[in-house]
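Forgive a beginner's question, but might I ask you for the amino acids of a protein and the tokens describing how it folds?
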Amino acid sequence: MIEWLFVPAAYFIGSISSAIIICKLMGLPDPREQGSGNPGATNVMRIGGKKAAAMTLLGDLLKGLLPVYLAKELGVSVDLIAITGVAAFLGHLYPVFFKFAGGKGVATSIGVLLGFSWVLGAAFVGTWLLIYKVGKISSLSALFASILSPIYAWYIVGDLYLTGAAVFMMLLLLWRHRSNIQRLIKGEE
């Protein structure tokens, strides 16, 4: 039963806001109060540049990857690995340490997917890069990659639990990007 400790641990790790911590360490404004108000790498790029954004992206990715990777390495069951990944993702979206106001979850979901399978994570990143190269819109790239991630999960890992986790994260990513979706529809993004 000790393996169930991975779930709350993953949530608490996910609740650590890379954007807020990196902005504070670099003397930048709080990302929740500048730009789009989103504590994520894209907004940190706007207010602090590429270095701060890259550090934020890496931090958010690692907090999705590390709990899943550790669970897999310690031989935890696949259903619990899926729940651990979702817990890290939910921690990023609704961080207990920051009044449950978190980011949109793209980088953390990539980390979770990389933990499930490096090929799955690479498929997400590859899709994101391809769509971004064509459209030059980060949110559109994230939406396309997110929508395709459950399909990739099914064909790459072929596991119902991991695919279910990918579906759950995709639905929450769509929900968190609803304002971006509205702007895309209006041609304002």
